[in-house]
Design brief:
5 helices; about 100 residues; globular; three-stranded parallel beta sheet; alpha/beta
Length: about 100
C-alpha cells in the first residue's frame, strides 16, 4: 500500500497475462496512516490499472511491533472506511452480526 504505483503495475501485468479477474486484498492503512484519502488514492491508482474487485481488511496494517496474529486483533476495525470506497469490494476481518445490521 505504501507503493500504489508498484501494485498497479503488478495488476496491469497480471491482467495482460490472464483472462480471469485480478483482485487485490488490502488494509485501510499502514502504521499510523489512517485517513480515508490514503486508501481512496491507493484504490483509485490500482483500479486505473484494471482491478475491479477489492477485498478490504477493515483495519490498519501495523508493520512494526505487532505479530501477524496481533495484527488481526489489535488495530480497530473501521468498516465505515470500507463502505466509503467507491468501487466494488468485499469486507474482511471479524465481520460480526452488529456490522451486518448497521450496513
Amino acid at each position: 500500500m505504501n507503493e500504489p504505483q508498484l501494485v498497479a503495475d503488478c495488476v496491469k501485468a497480471m491482467r495482460d497475462a490472464v483472462s480471469i479477474p485480478v483482485t487485490v486484498k488490502h488494509r485501510i492503512g499502514v502504521d499510523a496512516v489512517e485517513d480515508y484519502a490514503f486508501v481512496r488514492d491507493f484504490v483509485g491508482t490500482v483500479a486505473d490499472a484494471g482491478c475491479e474487485v477489492f477485498i478490504v481488511h477493515a483495519r490498519n496494517a501495523i508493520l512494526k511491533g505487532l505479530s501477524p496474529k496481533e495484527n488481526r486483533e489489535i488495530p480497530p476495525l473501521k468498516y465505515e472506511i470500507c463502505v466509503s470506497i467507491e468501487t466494488r469490494f468485499s469486507a474482511s476481518g471479524d465481520i460480526d452480526q452488529r456490522w451486518h445490521q448497521d450496513a
